[in-house]
Design a protein that fits this description.
The protein contains two helices and twelve strands; from the N terminus they run ββββββββββααββ. The chain has 248 residues and is mainly beta. β11 and β12 form a beta hairpin.
């Protein structure tokens, strides 16, 4: 099902650009190191971006946990999402960042079969959230999402404050500050789509440029900064983004 955008707008803060250091004065540039390729520590720049609907596959009361991958096949994805106040860009601590997305076959837990595949459905895989620390950072481990008909690869995200943690490991109540989506560079997704776990998904893939919601706005529209975790596609990626929300 194709999501539709809604009118309310929020702020999203772009992460710093990737910096590659080159040797000065050398006759031949040296190969960049992993440290050279890390995102630069730069001052946040607040940029307006549209919010998006939560879509048809949200489920309430998901688990508070740092690893949502469960036993799902796919290449590793390590997300680092930083929540800040839109007025001051100060980090927002103790906010719950919730995400959910489909698996390599394009199926959402709780709705398996919607993309034409038959697999076990426990209603929890690739869903969950974590509380930010005092630095506003939420770190979540998952797998690179797959795709379903009509949408490019994406992750849904919500930011909540003042939630109550429950005895069953979930959360309830609080205030919802932001609903949006996270996107992936097409150059990397094209490589991921060739990995066997994803290639068996024969549903036609919508590219980032063809998507009905992504508007080519880069980080200001939810595009993650992706950094390879190793020397091959199957080693996985780290994804970072800073989200500005109206906390007052």
């Amino acid at each position: 099902m194709t999501d539709a955008s809604i009118g309310r707008r929020t702020l999203l803060v772009a992460t710093g650009a990737t910096v590659t250091a080159l040797a000065v004065g050398a006759t031949t540039p040296e190969a960049p190191t992993a440290a050279d390729q890390a995102p630069a520590a730069a001052a946040a720049v607040c940029t307006l971006t549209k919010e998006m609907t939560e879509g048809p596959y949200h489920l309430d009361g998901q688990l508070v946990r740092a690893d949502i991958s469960e036993d799902k096949t796919g290449i590793p994805l390590q997300l680092t999402l930083t929540v800040v106040d839109d007025d001051t860009c100060a980090p927002l601590g103790n906010a719950l960042v919730e995400i959910w997305h489909c698996d390599a076959l394009g199926e959402y837990s709780g709705f398996v079969g919607g993309n034409g595949h038959d697999e076990p459905d426990n209603g929890t895989f690739l869903r969950g959230g974590v509380l930010t620390g005092s630095d506003g950072v939420a770190r979540i481990t998952s797998v690179y999402p797959g795709w379903y008909r009509g949408r490019c690869i994406h992750i849904h995200v919500k930011v909540h404050t003042e939630v109550t943690l429950t005895s069953d490991g979930s959360f309830e109540g609080g205030q919802e500050l932001h609903t949006g989506q996270l996107f992936f560079a097409e150059s990397i997704t094209a490589k991921v789509a060739l990995v066997p776990a994803y290639a068996v998904n024969t549903v036609p893939r919508t590219t980032l440029a063809q998507d009905s919601l992504y508007d080519e706005g880069g980080a200001a529209s939810g595009l993650l900064t992706l950094t390879a975790l190793g020397g091959s596609t199957t080693a996985g990626y780290a994804g970072t983004l800073t989200l500005g929300v109206e906390s007052g």
